[in-house]
């Protein structure tokens, strides 16, 4: 877990919880641009298996990832009424993440965050830690790695 985030003010330690294949995950609130209803997505031929396609959002073209496929989870073909697209922002770049449902907000302090147990950390592994939440644990995600954005990415004007 990033030590800077642990010592940040509470507003910067906030996380948005969402569910994928029945499991809770969270992204930093500072990197959540908005949450929109699942809607028309245009497929991109030859794209990665976890890229659902692209969507127009307020005049911008936004790639949309399938959250379950991106994290190697089973894709739930169940209730689509609760599905949402969480629009994530990293240095001005927007990427949508289709999730099964959006949950609560979580305030995390550095003391309660632990490394993911029993996992071999890979360079593109988006899980940066786990935190206790509602009788269980929530996986905290690194937006840059989740969206596969390069490390030295330039900000978009």
Please tag this protein with its features.
157 residues, mainly beta, 10 strands, 5-stranded mixed beta sheet
How would you sum up this structure in a few lines?
The chain is built from 3 helices and 10 strands, in the order αβββββαβββββα. With 157 residues, the chain is mostly beta strands.
What does this structure look like?
The chain is mainly β and 157 residues long. 8% of the residues lie in helices and 43% in strands. The strands form two sheets. Strands 8-1-2-10-9 form a five-stranded mixed β-sheet. Strand 1 (14-20) and strand 2 (23-28) form a beta hairpin. The longest helix has 4 residues, at 3-6. It is globular. The relative contact order is 0.23. Residues 1-6 have low confidence and may be disordered.
Number of strands: 10
**Helical coverage, percent range:** under 10%
Oligomer: single chain
Sheet of most strands: 5 strands, mixed
Beta fraction: 35-45%
- Unreliable spans are 1-6
User: What general form does the structure show?
Assistant: globular
Element order: H for helix, E for strand: HEEEEEHEEEEEH
Query: What strand line-up does the widest sheet have?
Result: 8-1-2-10-9
Mean pLDDT score, rounded? 86
Alpha carbon gap, first and last residue: 29 Å
Instruction: Report the total helices.
Output: 3
Global Rg: 15 Å
What would you call the structural class? mainly beta
């Amino acid at each position: 877990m990033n030590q800077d985030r642990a010592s940040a003010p509470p507003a910067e330690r906030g996380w948005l919880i969402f569910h994928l294949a029945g499991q809770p995950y969270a992204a930093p609130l500072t990197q959540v641009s908005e949450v929109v209803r699942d809607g028309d997505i245009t497929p991109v031929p030859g794209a990665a298996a976890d890229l659902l396609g692209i969507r127009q959002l307020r005049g911008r073209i936004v790639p949309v990832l399938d959250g379950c496929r991106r994290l190697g989870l089973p894709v739930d073909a169940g209730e689509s009424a609760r599905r949402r697209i969480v629009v994530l922002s990293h240095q001005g770049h927007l990427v949508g993440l289709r999730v099964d449902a959006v949950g609560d907000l979580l305030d995390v302090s550095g003391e309660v965050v632990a490394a993911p147990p029993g996992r071999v950390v890979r360079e593109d592994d988006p899980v940066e830690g786990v935190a206790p939440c509602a009788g269980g644990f929530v996986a905290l995600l690194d937006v840059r790695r989740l969206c596969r954005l390069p490390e030295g990415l330039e900000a978009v004007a």
